Amino acid sequence: MNDNDHDTTLIPDNKDTPPLADELQQIADHERGRRTTAPRVIQSAGRTQAFAAGGEPGKMRAGDADRDRVVERLNIAYSEGRLSKDEYDGRLASALSARTYADLDQLVADLPAARETVVTQVAKTNGLAIASLACGLAQFMLGPLATIPAIVFGHVARHQIKRTGEQGAGLALAGLILGWATMILGIALIIVVVVVGLATSAGMQGAML
Description:
Layout: H1 19-32, H2 45-52, H3 64-79, H4 85-97, H5 101-108, H6 127-142, H7 147-164, H8 169-208
């Protein structure tokens, strides 16, 4: 074993740490060329080996990132009025000088866990729903040419919205209503024209007789 395996600048001697776990931790940190700063959730191979060898979480050495997280929690607690100025100053000094996870844990043991920021993503509006409404309104200028697209786009948009959770169900419904209303009105108008034409033709034939 070379001299680097006993480099105490990486992990100072701790009598409470099992020798094998301490040695494994030194080897893992030496391979990285720096001191481990992983949080309590064990992510590095060296720390995983240390736990397998019987290391205790509270006695593991804390890194700068761990101390920074505790300082952040103290700042939040102080801003919320959970700590007095003296309590905050004392705990802040202790956090900056803490050596193990146990030292850090006792500083925030009586504080609520940090709340996660929930980011709510606003669902986008379905493009076909917009197109359906646009075609429904365009019927007033383009006539029946926009009727079929309004109906088709509206039905497809409603199916997509049910599957994806997008917004625009109201737009698609409005496009469908305009499209079907125009379609029904057009069919009714055709029927009326046909009936009137047949009646007129029958009247003319009767007059000729």
